[in-house]
Every structure is written in structure tokens, then in C-alpha cells.
Inverse folding.
């Protein structure tokens, strides 16, 4: 009995030190790895943020939780790839994908949202589940079911490695250019969306609709136009995510699952908060890459797959509205 | 209580800016709420639409501004004309462009937008930045309080400021006609007076015609030129404001003073519905 108790105790100590002590030694040994992982984390986080932004905009403006966001990423990415394969220059291929996503936004407004206006949120949510299945089937007919490599050269996405900070950290930090591109360009897109929301007439109208759609309607803001707009925006964000994620592995229907990573981001950041989506995305991205690298020893592989959800769950227990859930203005 | 206490005839030559002709409104395909309402607003007039809670005032205004659809309401009979053109079945965006805008009951400011952003959303249907800036200054001239609070989030301003914001926002669309739904609701008497004073000036100086739904009969009849009294989805009486004020029935039932001086305790409770119609 005593021996068993001791075993359990040593195991516990090992486990806890594996979680909370060993990582620090690992960092001390290889600081270059830490920098590299942080950069990977930020890059993944920016992508999550973008996808989450698409969710937030749609949710705020039309009250729809868009389950089809993931498949939109696939659709967008494959459109670009297929067009380039067909010999269309990269710029035109991207423009073509933008057109595809805007047409999709119009179609969704006309065929899904408009007939269901005034229905409960849950009904609209289920409609987007149906939409996701439809797009998956339809997409496989058009694009075929097999994943396709993203022609990074044609798109002029650098995919080499660069080495920096060699003198400072002992060993040089190896950075994937793909990560840098995703982080940099993603950050630019996030900034553009924020400027759009806060500095333009349409952006202001969009926020107005999010606040009170009846009142927005009463001052002459056409809700349908705004809906098409947010779905188009989400579609354009999806193009970027589809191409960048595709470039890391391949562009295929499995990417849809990746987009569901936006879910813990939304729980963390709050479903209605734009800054929440951005900061939440970064926390989840960095958190899961750190966990994957430093906790692999004690938790095994695949930490990355679930850590985001655990982080979100913990936040949900403490703050149900998320870290940045929009302040609910109460007047007495 | 049926009657017509008309004193001065509306000149036949002056075509009303807004005519509502015998409309019937049904909610959810079954609930008949307006049972043949007719009313007219002359150009430059202030017309009051009076009646107790639930009489159908809001429904009438929403039928005009076509906000009914979002509440699953439908005009099933009758017609509405604005400046001589039929406008029923025109959508709200188009109506705002044509110069008719509703200020909804319960103010409905955009809480997470600043006061100034709220006002600017009112100009959504317009082009021309310079003109819009000029109108913003005009709104601030009418409502100096809004200028002081221009950078505050509307959700954090007082009820009176929110009412001013809602009226100012509508003004930014450069309307020919405003449909005001219970602007006095929930405000202290002095503030009510201040707001009605401004509405009166907007009518006089900017030439905005006004259809005013109110439960506060007393105030409404002091500022309006003409009034309609709605009961159970029907107009039961209409006439010049002065005539209505002196009518014994109106005194007893709506002004709270009967011939014997007894006060009535009707309309004590206001109800407030804020329905989310999506989601
Ligand atoms: N969306 C709706 N669905 C069903 N009935 C409604 C709806 N809105 C209002 N009503 C009913 O219509 C009647 C008139 O309401 P309303 O026009 O709001 O009156 P008022 O503005 O004069 O208080 C009331 O009996 C109310 O219950
Ligand atoms: Mg009402």
C-alpha cells in the first residue's frame, strides 16, 4: 500500500514539475526556440483572430451564428488555387475569389437570411449548418474532394526560413517566412477592418445595425445591404485564411475544422467584441503553440488540438461574457 | 364617444402632405389592430394622434414608416399617400429618402455609438459631407446639450439626452415630415416642455411637418394644431386642438379633469416593449 502511495506521489510531482518547472529550464536551454514558437503562435493567432472577426461581424449585424464559416474558408482557398491552376494570374485569381465570395454573400442573403428574417437565432443557426453541408457537397462537385497544394510561388508568398538573432541567443532563431507573412498581412487586414468600422459611413451603419436593428432600419439603413456586406467581408477574410492555411499544408476540405478554432477564440473574447476577437485569437494561438512544445513531454502529442478549448472553458467558468464581452449598458 | 368637433375646415385646395386613408392593420395574420384609420397632416402642421396605451398609435406610425413588416404586421386595407404619391409598400429606406422619418417610441439610440456618431447615422441616406457637417451644427444649435455630450456613448446619457439624440438623428435626414412616437415618455415635466419647445421651433423654422403620437394629451394639444383621438384601433374623434381641449369628453377622459373636477387615474402605467425581432 505504501509503495503504491509513493508511486502516485512521485508521479504527481513529476507531472506537476513537467507542467510548471521543466518548461522554464527548457526555455533557459534554448531561448531561440521560445522566440520561434512565440512567432508561430502570434501568426496562428492572427489567423484565428481574422476568422473570429468574420464571426463577430456576422453575429453582431444579423444575430446569426455562422456555422458555415469554416467551409467558406475552404471554398475561398480552393477558388484561388483552382483559378491559378487554370492559368489565371495570381492577382486575377484573388480578384476572382473575391467575386465568388461576394456572389456567395448575395446568394446567402437572398436564399437563407431573407426568408428566415424574424425567426429565432437557433433557427438561423441551424440554417447555417445546412448551408455548411450544402457548400461542402457543392464544393466537392466543383473542386473535387482531393486537397490541392497552394502554388505559393505564383502567389509570391515566401516560404523559406530566415535566421535572426544568432549572436544574442546563442543559436539563431529560425523563422518561417510563411508565419511572418501570415502575421504581418493578417495584422494589416485586422487594422483595415477596424478603420473601416470606425471611420467610414458604412462601418458606422454596420455598428448601428449591431446595436439596434429596428432603429437602424428607422433611419433608412437598409439591413439587407449591411448583411450582404458583412457576409462579403467574412468571405474576403476567408480567402486570406484559406490561402495561408492551405500554404502550410494543402488546401482541402479538412481546413474547415481549423476554422472552428475560432470558437474558443470567441468564447474567450466575447461574441460581440472586435478587440476581443483579436486579443482572444492571439492568446489562443500563442497558448496552444507553447503548450504543444513545452507540455508535449507530460501530456503527449496533440496538445495544440484541445488546449484552446480548455483555456476557453476556464474563462467561461470565471467570466461567462468572455474577457471582452461588450459592456452591457445598464441604466437605472 | 363619437364625434367631430371640427371648427375650421381644412381648405380643400391645400392638399395634405400625408394622408392615411382607411387603413386596416393585422399582426401575425390574425390580430386585427387598426380597423379603418384615416388621418391627414397638412404641410407645415403639427398633428397629434392621441389615445390610451394600446389604442394603436404606434401601429399607425409604423404603418406609415413601413416598420410594421419587422413586427409581422401587414396593411390589409386602405392606402397611404405622401406628397400625393402612394407610399404603402415602399420600404423604409426609400421613405427616409423621400423625407418621412419616424422617431421610435422609447428613443432607441445606438448605445455603443457616441452621440455624434448617432447623429451621423441619421444622414445615412444622404450624400455630401459638407452639407451633412452643416446640418450637424444645426442639430447642435437646436440641442446644445448634445454638443456637450457629443463624444459620450449614447448608452451613458440621460433619458432626455437620448430623446434629443433620437430627434436630432432623425433631423439629420433632412425630413419633410417626422413621425414622433411618445417623445414625452418617462421624462420629467420640465424636460418634456423643453423638448416640445424645440419640436415646435423645428416645425416653425425648418418647416418640418409633424405627426405626434402621445398619451400626454395635455402637452400634445398645446403644441399641436389638430388632433385625432384613437380608441381600439379607430378614430373616435378629431378636430382643431383648441376645440378638443375644450371638449367635455376629452377633458374627462384624456385631460383628467371632469366637469366635477375629479381626476382620473387612467394611463398611469406606461409599458415599454423592446422586441428583438431578429435572433
Ligand atoms: N407586434 C405585435 N404583434 C401583435 N400585437 C401587437 C403588436 N404590436 C402591438 N400589438 C397590439 O396592437 C395594439 C395596439 O398597439 P400599439 O400600436 O402599440 O398601441 P399604442 O402605441 O397606442 O400604445 C395593442 O393591443 C397591442 O397589444
Ligand atoms: Mg405606442
Amino acid at each position: 500500500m505504501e509503495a503504491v502511495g509513493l508511486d502516485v506521489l512521485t508521479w504527481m510531482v513529476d507531472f506537476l514539475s513537467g507542467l510548471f518547472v521543466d518548461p522554464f529550464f527548457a526555455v533557459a536551454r534554448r531561448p531561440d526556440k521560445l522566440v520561434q514558437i512565440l512567432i508561430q503562435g502570434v501568426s496562428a493567432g492572427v489567423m484565428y483572430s481574422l476568422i473570429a472577426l468574420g464571426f463577430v461581424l456576422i453575429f453582431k449585424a444579423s444575430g446569426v451564428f455562422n456555422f458555415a464559416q469554416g467551409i467558406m474558408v475552404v471554398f475561398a482557398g480552393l477558388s484561388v488555387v483552382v483559378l491559378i491552376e487554370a492559368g489565371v494570374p495570381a492577382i486575377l485569381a484573388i480578384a476572382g475569389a473575391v467575386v465568388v465570395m461576394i456572389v456567395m454573400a448575395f446568394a446567402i442573403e437572398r436564399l437563407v437570411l431573407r426568408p428566415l428574417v424574424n425567426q429565432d437565432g437557433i433557427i438561423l443557426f441551424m440554417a447555417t449548418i445546412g448551408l455548411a453541408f450544402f457548400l461542402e457537397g457543392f464544393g466537392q462537385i466543383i473542386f473535387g474532394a482531393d486537397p490541392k497544394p497552394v502554388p505559393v510561388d505564383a502567389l509570391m508568398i515566401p516560404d523559406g526560413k530566415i535566421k535572426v538573432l544568432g549572436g544574442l541567443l546563442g543559436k539563431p532563431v529560425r523563422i518561417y517566412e510563411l508565419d511572418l507573412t501570415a502575421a504581418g498581412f493578417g495584422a494589416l487586414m485586422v487594422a483595415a477592418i477596424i478603420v473601416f468600422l470606425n471611420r467610414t459611413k458604412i462601418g458606422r451603419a454596420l455598428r448601428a445595425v449591431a446595436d439596434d436593428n429596428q432603429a437602424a432600419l428607422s433611419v433608412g439603413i437598409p439591413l439587407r445591404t449591411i448583411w450582404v456586406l458583412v457576409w462579403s467581408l467574412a468571405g474576403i477574410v476567408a480567402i486570406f485564411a484559406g490561402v495561408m492555411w492551405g500554404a502550410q499544408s494543402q488546401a482541402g476540405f479538412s481546413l474547415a475544422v481549423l476554422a472552428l478554432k475560432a470558437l474558443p477564440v470567441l468564447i474567450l473574447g466575447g461574441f460581440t467584441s472586435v478587440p476581443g476577437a483579436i486579443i482572444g485569437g492571439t492568446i489562443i494561438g500563442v497558448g496552444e503553440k507553447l503548450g504543444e512544445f513545452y507540455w508535449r513531454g507530460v501530456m503527449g502529442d496533440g496538445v495544440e488540438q484541445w488546449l484552446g478549448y480548455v483555456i476557453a472553458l476556464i474563462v467561461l467558468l470565471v467570466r461567462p461574457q468572455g474577457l471582452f464581452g461588450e459592456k452591457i449598458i445598464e441604466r437605472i | 364617444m363619437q364625434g367631430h368637433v371640427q371648427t375650421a375646415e381644412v381648405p380643400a385646395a391645400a392638399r395634405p402632405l400625408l394622408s392615411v386613408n382607411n387603413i386596416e392593420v393585422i399582426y401575425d395574420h390574425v390580430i386585427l389592430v387598426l380597423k379603418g384609420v384615416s388621418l391627414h397632416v397638412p404641410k407645415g402642421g403639427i398633428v397629434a394622434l392621441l389615445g390610451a396605451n394600446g389604442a394603436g398609435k404606434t401601429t399607425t406610425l409604423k404603418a406609415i414608416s413601413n416598420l410594421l413588416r419587422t413586427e409581422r404586421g401587414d396593411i390589409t386595407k386602405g392606402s397611404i399617400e405622401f406628397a400625393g404619391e402612394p407610399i404603402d409598400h415602399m420600404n423604409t429606406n426609400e421613405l427616409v429618402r423621400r423625407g418621412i422619418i419616424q422617431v421610435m417610441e422609447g428613443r432607441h439610440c445606438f448605445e455603443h455609438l457616441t452621440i455624434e456618431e448617432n447623429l451621423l447615422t441619421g444622414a445615412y441616406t444622404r450624400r455630401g459631407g459638407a452639407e451633412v457637417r452643416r446640418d450637424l451644427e444645426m442639430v447642435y444649435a437646436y440641442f446644445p446639450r448634445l454638443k456637450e455630450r457629443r463624444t459620450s456613448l449614447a448608452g451613458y446619457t440621460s433619458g432626455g439626452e437620448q430623446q434629443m439624440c433620437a430627434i436630432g438623428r432623425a433631423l439629420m435626414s433632412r425630413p419633410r415630415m417626422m413621425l414622433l412616437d411618445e417623445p414625452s415618455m418617462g421624462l420629467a415635466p420640465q424636460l418634456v416642455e423643453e423638448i416640445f419647445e424645440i419640436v415646435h421651433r423645428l416645425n416653425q423654422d425648418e418647416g418640418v411637418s409633424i405627426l405626434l403620437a402621445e398619451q400626454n394629451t395635455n402637452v400634445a394639444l398645446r403644441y399641436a394644431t389638430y388632433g385625432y383621438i384613437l380608441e381600439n384601433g379607430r378614430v373616435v374623434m378629431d378636430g382643431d386642438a383648441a376645440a378638443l381641449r375644450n371638449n367635455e369628453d376629452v377633458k374627462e377622459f384624456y385631460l383628467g379633469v371632469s366637469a366635477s373636477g375629479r381626476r382620473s387615474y387612467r394611463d398611469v402605467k406606461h409599458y415599454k416593449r423592446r422586441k428583438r425581432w431578429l435572433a
About this structure: The mean pLDDT of chain A is 85. The longest helix of chain A spans residues 31-62. The CA atoms of residues 128 and 315 of chain A lie 27 Å apart.
